Amino acid sequence: MSTISTETPRTALSWKLVPAALVSASGVLLFGVENDLLGYSVLAMGLVTAAFIDRALMRHLALVGAGIFTVSLVPLNADLSIQHMVLMGGALALAVLVPWLVSRFVYGENIIRFPVNTGRKWPLAAKLYLVGVAALGYFILPVYLISTGVYQNWPDASDPTIFWRLFLGVNAVGIWDELFFICTTFTLLRQHFPDWLANVLQAVVFSSFLWEIGYQAWGPLLTFPFALLQGYTFRLTKSFTCVVSVHLIFDFVLFLALVHAHNRDWLPIFLY
Question: Average pLDDT of the chain?
């Protein structure tokens, strides 16, 4: 009797993992491989499978899938024209707003939240993480961007207008990453899976999205661990402010490294 009771939850978790993994894989296909037909098919398969396995899971995967689908409708590149920035910004905004609105006002839940002023002190580990992210970004990003040539996925910021648009775009996308992948996707998946597994599932989509944004070559070796650490940090601090602070520090170093990569005489503060 005890064997059955211990195995049943594992079996249920294994079955629930199938549709969740399909939804995560759809992100890889849509953003990493850029195969829309296969990506949408796998996304739909994940939602249909979830409907037969666990209706509550299906409802939450549908919210994640809605965000993934919305973002997939626009080109994810560093085109800094006003038209593209408005189009992409609108899609990113809808990808966060629609899941939150449906969860809050249709499902009647209060799961998706963006805790800013939590009243909790950040643990020492979180503070050290801030410093560590800045240091790692300083040493790794210039080497990564320049040695692989992926800095060319972002425009040259020699023109003052492009300079400030690049700064705005890099930071806006960084904030959105935390809103959707951590506060929305990770939070919803945690309702059905252990934290570590929910974190892996969100990190797969997170790093796939960043691949299409421009973090290519061996970029996933940076972005996947970063996505995992962001999920863990959010679980530890329960603070949107903390994870956004981490991301914006990293993105500030990224911005400086991009300017340096395009114009080596500018910002001679990097070692590479």
Answer: 92
